[in-house]
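Hello forum,

I keep getting stuck at the same step: I have a sequence, I want structure tokens, and every attempt I make locally crashes halfway through. Rather than fight my setup again tonight, could one of you with a working pipeline run this one for me? It's a single chain of 79 residues.
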Amino acid sequence: MATLERELAAYKRALPELLADEGKYVLVKGDEIVDRFTSYEDALKIGYGKFGLEPFLVKLIERNERVANFTRRFVACPA
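Reply #2:
Ran it on my machine without issues. Output:
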């Protein structure tokens, strides 16, 4: 299973309930919603405190997820 796949699936399953806290951040480990936080930094701090370097997910709770596209500006190498 890909890294954070379980956490993302748990977030999606819990999203209808989580929307009561839209705008907050959720900490997810495995299939468990650990807690909700008002700041990303607080969620990250607790995540590292509880799980160390094991993968966990901190995600903004939002009804309509914003998609960001990033591209790289490629410059041809001189021949």
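The radius of gyration is 16 Å. If your local run keeps crashing, start a new thread with the error log.
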